Amino acid sequence: MQRKKQVMLVIIIASLLLSLSCSLPFLTDSSTQFEDGLVQNYHPAASPVSQYTLSETQQAHVDEYGYPDRFTIFFFDEMLPDGQLYAMRHESWYYDSRGYEIVFRNGDKFTERNGAPIEIKGLGRTVYSPQGFTAEMNLDALLNLQGETGFFVQNVDDNLLKGELIFIQGLAAGFEEGYLSYVETLPLGETSSLAEMPPLVETPPLEEDVEGLTPQELVNEGRHTYENTCTFEDGAVENWSTVLSFEFVEGGVNWNYENLGTSFFYQKISTNTYEYLHEGEKNTLIFTDLGIQKESSSGSSCNSLRSDVSGADVPSDDILFQDDFSDTNSGWDRNDWDDGLTDYGEGVYQILVKVPSMDIWSNPGKHFEEDVRIDVDVTKISGEEDNNFGIICRYSSSPDGFNYYFFNISSDGFAVIGKVKNSATEYISSEKMEPSDAIKQGTETNHLQANCIGNKLTLYVNGEEVASTTDSDLTDGDIGFIAGTFEIPRTEILFDNLIVRKP
Prior knowledge:
The protein has helices spanning 13-17, 56-65, 139-144, 215-220, and strands at 37-39, 70-79, 85-95, 100-105, 108-114, 151-157, 162-168, 171-176, 179-185, 222-231, 237-249, 252-257, 262-270, 273-278, 281-288, 291-296, 301-306, 319-323, 335-337, 340-344, 349-353, 359-362, 372-383, 387-398, 401-409, 414-421, 424-427, 434-435, 446-453, 456-461, 464-470, 478-485, 491-501. By secondary structure, it is mainly β. It folds into 3 domains: 13-185, no CATH class; 215-306, Lipocalin, CATH 2.40.128; 319-501, Jelly Rolls (Sandwich). Strands 1-6-7-8-9-2-3-4-5 form a 9-stranded antiparallel sheet. Strands 18, 19, 20, 21, 23, 29, 30, 31 and 33 form a 9-stranded antiparallel sheet that branches. An 8-stranded antiparallel barrel has the order 10-11-12-13-14-15-16-17. The protein starts with 12 loop residues before the first helix and ends with a strand.
C-alpha cells in the first residue's frame, strides 16, 4: 500500500475567467481539442455515464459526517511489485470546518488526518458529490452534471497532466485522451461554522537536578544528536551532524564522540565550563541551554546545537519544520491496515510493514520550495535485517504517479539514494545498496541526514557521508519517512527528533 498526496490547483480564478466575453471554435467528437481560452454557449451532447457507487466505508462516513466541503479525485494506473497495472481511484475528502481530511483508495479508507479548522471567507461546501465522477467521463458528461455551457480551457503538457485542463464554476478537471483523469472541487456558498482552535501546550520548566547539575548540564547529559558548525584556524567552515554522549562524574565530564569511537575527560574549572589539555593545546567546553560551545587554543571553534531537544525549537531562522512527535496532531498519517501501519507512538513516529516486497511512506503535508537538509534518528525495533528505511524529500504526486527522492539504509549496514518518478523506482547513487561501516546494525539507533541542495543529493549516517549523487528531475515538494521490505516480510521502524532546515 502506498500513499499519495494530491497536487492542488488554483481554481478560484475560474469564476473570474468565465466573465470574459469571447468565444472560441471547437470540435464536437469525443477527443475534443480546444484552443486555450474561454468557450461560451457550448451545448454538451447527452453522454450517459453510470455514477460511481460509494463503498460501504464511504457511505457509512457520509451517513455520519455528511458529504465533504470539497474533494479531489485522481484516476490512474498503479504498478504492483510484479509489474502488473491496476486501475486506481484516489479520493481526498476535506471537511474544512472541522480541520479533517480522509483519503480513500478504490473505496477503502487509506489515511486520515486531523488539523486546525480552515476558514476562507465566502466559501462553504461544493455543490458536487464524489459519486458524480468516474474515469469513463468525457467533457460533455462533466458539463451535464450542473448544466454548464461555458468553461475555460488550458492545454497542458507536464508531469501533472498531458491533455486539457477545464475550469468551470467551482471545479477544475483534467482530461487525457478525452477522458477524466483528475477533478478538484471548490466549495462555494456560506462558510461553515468553525470549531475553536485547540489550546496551546506549554513546555514545563526545566527542574533543578538533585545531584547538583546546572540546567545547562542537564540538557546535555546523556546521549544526543548535535548539529555542528565549526570554524578552523585557516578560516574554513564545516557543518555536520554527530552523536555525542556526556557523563558527568566527580571533577569533570566524560565526553564520548561516537563517530570516532573515542572518549575524552574534561576537567571542570567553573560553572558549565570544562577544559581538556592535550599536547600543549587547551580545549574549552561550555554547556549551554541548547548545546555546547567548544574553543581551542589553536584558533578553532565549534557551536553544537542539540537537534533533539524535546518541546523546544532550535533558535535559528534556518529551521523550516521540526517535530518530536509528542503532538499526535502534527500532521502525519495514522493508518492501520492489513499490509502495515503508520502512526504516532510514545514520542516517536512508527512505520510497520507486514508483508514482503512493500514500501510504505508517510508525509506531514508540507511543501518546501527551497533546498532542505533533513535530520532524524531512526531505530529498527522488530523484523528482519534485510530491509530499507529512511528519508524522503521533494515528494509530489500527479495522475501519472508519485515522485520523490529517497535516502535509505538497511539494518544489515547498506545505503543508497534513489528516485521514484511517476511511481517507477530506481537507484541513482549506485546500481545497488552499498555497504557502509558508518551504519549501526541491528536495533541500534542511527542518525540520518539527507541534503537536497539543487541537483546535489547526499546521505549522511552518524555524521559520515555514505552516498551522494546528482539529479535534476525533482525540484520541490514535501518531506517524509519511508520503510520497506524485500523478500522477507515485516520490519518496524521508529523515527524521532526530526528537523528540516535550510542548508
